[in-house]
Amino acid sequence: MSEQQLPEVPNVTMAVSRNRAGTLSVRATDQGMPVEIKFERSEYRYGAQALADEILRLTRRSTIAAKAKRRELLAENGMPADILDQLGLPTRQQAVDELDRMDDADTGPTSWMRPV
Fold this sequence. Notes:
single chain, alpha+beta, three-stranded antiparallel β-sheet, 3 strands
């Protein structure tokens, strides 16, 4: 008899988030560790603090997405929903809601234009 092969769950789940302009991206794990940061030289014009703040914001977004992805992988492998809840892994809808909330709270510059 053949046993059904379950997909293997990786030790680390990762996701990528990008800023609106696509000039900065952060890949982070479901544990909140940024593992790759890419940005264009033009990001320097906003200053070090603004760049650091944006990296942290994108790291948080990537972490939420990676946690939701990890929940889906574990659920596919038969882990009960109550255990996934106890692990603090959000459902896809919870992740979307949290990311939307973060986007609503984002008050960063949306244009290079300024009032005269």
